[in-house]
Design a protein that fits this description.
141 residues; alpha+beta; GTP Cyclohydrolase I, domain 2
Amino acid sequence: MFASSAIAPCPSELPFPLRKLALSDAIQVRGLRLWAHVGVLDFERKEGQWFELDLELCVDLSAAGRSDALGDTLDYSQLIISLQIQARELSCQTLEHYSERIFEHIEELYGPVPISLELRKCQAPVSGFVGVVAVRRSRNI
């Protein structure tokens, strides 16, 4: 659990006049590959597929910057491992629901910290489509 009680919105999520007042510290996890059973088609939920997740958790990192103590920050290794476990156990139809479950999971670990995420389905089963489908969401901003 994050030791400090200072929580502030990510500056990029605020209207311009408020950005100068906002906390600019954040922990980012980019390109986290997760194997999950998510999709509308039966075979997607049965066989599973790769997803990629980018997260930004806005927290005051000044205490950890001064102390060099893990207890003064969010332990991103704990977050990564727990999200990998969650992905293996999850079965649902939509990216929207999967992203909601990610939010809930992060809040169980760290409380209501400001979070932004982008969750990408690496190979959507759409004939002739080789791009990426994603949802981008924020919470507690």
